Amino acid sequence: MTSAAPAPAPPAQRTPGPLVEARGLVKAFGDFTAVAGIDVAVARGEAFGFLGPNGAGKSSTMRMIGCVSPPTAGTLRVLGADPVRDGSAIRARLGVVPQRDTLDEELTVRENVLVYARYFGLSRARARAKAAELLEFAQLTDRADDKVEPLSGGMKRRLTIARALVNDPEVLLLDEPTTGLDPQARHVLWDKLFRLKRQGVTLVLTTHYMDEAEQLCDRLVVMDGGRIVAEGSPRQLIERYSTREVLELRLAAEPGGEEVARAAEVLAGGAGRTEVLPDRLLVYTDDADAVAAEAERRGIAVLSALTRRSTLEDVFLHLTGRTLVD
């Protein structure tokens, strides 16, 4: 039996207009500018994502939205209020799932939710009822009286999300919610987050998983160097910055040699662009079969060929590069 998502916040708590709105938002740490004047608007019920390499400004932006780090410049409104002036009131209406679980491993699963509920002023009776509801949603009812420490990573993550929902938040902030989880646990969490969105909870998340962004996000921004370099739905970004297909060719020629460079130049004529990697040649095109036929016609020795659809990862790497950023 599939558990139902928790009920959304009462209408009286609802805020009209964008739930998160930033204009020219800046965050600087001394001489270093982490966020360099971005504009963002997140609508109610939307799943909105921040993508970007390390140091792009994602976490700094999330901390400002979460009212734990004041903006240096620009304007920011969360739930229609000023995070600097009304931070405490805003935080009472947010749910936060940090990158690393902050559960009390000496307490039971149920006690973790009960203690958190008391922080928000829920009565003991209401806290017990809410804990039962959330543990059912997280599929942890049968582990309610177990200590947290021996739970699997996926169970701990589901408990962290359940705990973040104890105050019926209008906005749920998720910082890399499935990092370190196995594929099965990731898909279970995706299902839970999708159900929350269907119930009207607004999701704002960061992730390094491009398939996760494609699955969860209605709209997203790609950040690089503290700025937004692209914005749109996953499909819009793929259509705008990539091609319908990608042809991956492994060539008989020596990797990095002149023959590979010439092959890339030849095949680029019938494609959007080519990219030479250490082990293969990527050809971005709307007709992979035609490019493969052209490679054969030109006598290019191909060891193997793979055709796949373009993904958000292709867009991400095109916009931010393949160089590691520490």
From TrEMBL:
One annotated GO molecular function: ATP binding
UniProt name for this protein: ATP-binding cassette domain-containing protein
Annotated organism of origin: Kineococcus glutinatus
Keyword set includes Transport: yes
Keywords of the record: Antibiotic resistance, ATP-binding, Nucleotide-binding, Transport
Entries under Pfam families matching the protein: ABC_tran (PF00005)
Recorded family membership: Belongs to the ABC transporter superfamily.
Regions annotated as coiled coil: none
